Fold this protein.
Amino acid sequence: MVNTYATMVSFTNLLQQGISVNTDPVAGGGTILATIGTAGDPAFNGMVIGEWQAGAKMANTAGDILGGHRLVFLSGSRERTITSEGAGIFDLTLDGSKLFLNAVKYMTRPAAPKFTSIKPAADGKIAIAWTGGGTLQTAPTVTGPWQDVPGATSPYTFTPTSAMLFGRILQ
């Protein structure tokens, strides 16, 4: 997005100096998702949105390990001269609000279903397993026609009935 997403606001008639920006290298294997793009801005290329996967090691003194997926969205006032009531004051524009809500949606989306194993089972059967829920479907060709497998939950064991069978999981 090239539009302004946050703006300077006043708190008790004091102009706040805008968003926090990380201009340091991102530690812990984080991925930068958005930066300041205004040439000439002292924070040019500074990170404002970034994410870290579960298991990332933070650069703090303790070397904390993240237990889950994390996202940082830097916004709000960064003043040290005001009370806690003014710190982090809402400063998002309409586009910034959309950006924030998209970030929340991104972080709260369910995990996509995926196959985790396909292996032989007893008596010539095949066992398949997947994560993320979803509905197991099968088809004789990759183009279909696809049909739900009634009652299939992971792990699922079946007896092959043809030389070729395709499978997918619908979310």
